[in-house]
Amino acid sequence: MSIAATGSSAANSKYAAIVIDANTGKTLFSANADSRRYPASLTKMMTLYLTFEALSRGKITKETRVPISAQAAAEPPTKLGVKAGGSITVETAIYGLVTKSANDAATALGEMLGGSQDQFARMMTAKARSLGMNGTVFRNAHGLPNTGQFTTARDMATLGIALKEHYPQYYGYFSTRSFTFGRTRMPNHNRLLGRVKGVDGIKTGYTRASGFNLASSVSDGNRRIVAVVMGGTSGASRDNHMVELIKKYLPKASTRGKSEPLVASAGGTSFNVLNKLLLPKKDAPTPDQRPDTDAAVAEVEDSVFVSEASVQAYANPTPRPQINIEQKIAPQEKVDPVSTASLNKSGWVVQVASSPSRAEAQAFLETASKQAPAVLANASGFTVQFEKGGVTYHRARFGGFESKSAAWDACAALKKQKISCYAVQN
Questions:
Q1: Does the entry feature the keyword Cell wall biogenesis/degradation, yes or no (predicted)?
Q2: What pLDDT, in 10s, does the model give residues 335-362?
């Protein structure tokens, strides 16, 4: 793979990569960084994030025993191999994840922290949303194949930065070269540790569907970058490409210290259903409840708002058409009409979703149109591009409403069809 993402990497539909300056948050390199990919064992970064969170809050200690259920014991390799009914300490489980990428230990941690693997996956997705990982859905704690589990290279870089910023007291686990379990010495799967100066983690991953993945954190004096490579055709080519990226972009990173964290500290994870994971933190205005101020409208409007109608669309992880995320964005919002119908771009509109992917925003419009054809018969779908936190998003909206009441009535009707939305003046 070349840094320019030409040749074999350009022909590889699984390939994605990103390099982020961990001091400034600036994207130094990107290729398909917002395209949907399978995380494989990079999933365990979130399992560890929630484990570190529980440790920091005193809910567990490093010596807390983690029960090994029949389901955990039955997970396929790689694993520690503890029999059902046994247990390991939290710290042993952590070492198992960061070195051997143990699937049984990941499942056991998830079951202990979440009560069940399904509930833990909901917690993982909720945490992803609160960290700004808007293109990620988790279905399990280990990353073994699941068609509904997906992420992006940008989201994995965000998680890598969050792990270091939020839990520096535990981050050293990622640089563990090996640990001994019973009589077995288990080396770290990350072969860049000790090979490339400054690499201090984070995680490798592989399934047949994902290809070879790697997230790396690298520091050199005052410079620090987090880089992610996904979809490598082999472990060696993935590692070599990561080395290329580090050599080229670490010297270009800023030497100044951070004035503030790049990833806002996340809140709780007490969500019960996936629908709640995909909604903004603040209630959107509805026909029977309006925000108190214009600022409240703006806060809702700039949330990554994912409609209930799009939940099923998320279950299909087929990569969307690639987006050139390095296009220069004009300061004003860009409007991309989905249809050629006459469109009133002023006045009142109904927004049903917002996504980092324009193709996904358009898919939300199509889903809503099919699910509620009568409500949207005279409306025209379009996307509006805006930037927030250095990331480009695309609002999915329907226009053509003659008045505020018409837009609010349409939104109320959509909600009866289980399509989350809000009405706003364009």
A1: yes
A2: 434 332 334 445 788 998 888 777 778 8
Alpha carbon separation from 42 to 210, 287, 323, 334, 335 (Å, rounded): 11, 42, 23, 34, 35
CATH number belonging to domain 275-425: 3.30.70.1070
Tokens of 377: 């018969």
What are the extents of the domains in the chain? 8-249, 275-425
**CB neighbours of 179 closer than 8 A, spacing ≥ 6?**
95, 99, 185, 186
For the stretch 100-151, pLDDT in tens is: 999 999 999 999 999 999 999 999 999 999 999 999 999 999 999 998 999 9
- Concatenate the DSSP letters of all residues of 191-241 into one string: TTTTTSTTEEEEEEEEETTTEEEEEEEEEETTEEEEEEEEEESSHHHHHHH
Residue 83 annotated among the catalytic residues of the structure: no
Structure tokens at 8: 């074999």
The residue annotated as part of the active site, out of 30, 35, 101, 354, is 101
Is position 282 annotated in a ligand binding site? no
Clarify whether 14 is annotated catalytic: no
Class assignment of domain 8-249?
Answer: alpha beta
The distance of Cα 375 from the centroid of its chain, to the nearest Å, equals 32
pLDDT band with cut points at 50, 70 and 90 for residue 3:
low
Average pLDDT of every residue of the chain: 79
Does residue 101 carry a catalytic annotation?
Answer: yes
Query: Of 35, 41, 303, 310, which residue is the catalytic one?
Result: 41
Residues 351, 359: Cα–Cα separation, whole Å = 16
Whether this prediction's pTM lies above 0.90 is answered by no
How many Å apart are CA 203 and CA 380, to the nearest integer?
44
CA 57 to chain centre: 23
